[in-house]
Amino acid sequence: MTLKECYAAMGSNYDEVIGRLRSERLVQKFVLKFADDGSFDLLQRSLAEQNYSEAFRAAHTIKGVCQNLSLTKLGASSSALAETLRGGVWSEEAAALVEETTKDYQDTISAIRAFQEAQGG
């Protein structure tokens, strides 16, 4: 699997990220680091503890990283979740967005892991 194929599997924009970072090696470095980032774990913990202000912060961090790396699909769902949690308030809309963000995150991580395996790592 190439990095471009990985981006397609994630529902993300390879051409946009290459245009921004200018180096496939740099994109690869940051995409692989994303897989080890703790923001999604923080999001899950915060939601379990009903700490919606901290959950907002975690979702906002995920959104920001996704924007920088052009992780389009996960970026859209995490952005919507962050906006719904802004102000630290829970809602039924937030519950649906947590499910969508979780699925998008799992799809993104699965594609990154498949890319990593294809690279021998």
Write up this protein.
The structure is a single chain. The chain has helices spanning 3-10, 14-21, 24-35, 39-48, 52-69, 72-85, 92-118. The protein is mainly α and 121 residues long. α6 runs antiparallel to α7. The relative contact order is 0.17. The model has no long low-confidence stretch (mean pLDDT 96).
Q: Counting H and I runs of at least 4 residues, what is the number of helices?
A: 7
Which percent bin holds the helix content? Answer: over 70%
Overall average pLDDT: 96
How do the SSEs run, as a string of H and E? HHHHHHH
Q: What overall form do the CA principal axes indicate?
A: elongated
Low-confidence stretches: none
Q: Compute the gyration radius: what is it?
A: 14 Å
**Span between termini:** 12 Å
Q: Could you describe the largest sheet, including whether it forms a barrel? A: none
In terms of structural class, how would the helical and strand content be classed? Answer: mainly alpha
Proportion of residues in β-strands: under 5%
Give the structure's gist in a few sentences.
The chain is mostly helical and 121 residues long.
Keywords:
121 residues, mainly alpha, 0% strand, elongated
What topology emerges from the helices and strands here?
Blueprint: H1 3-10, H2 14-21, H3 24-35, H4 39-48, H5 52-69, H6 72-85, H7 92-118
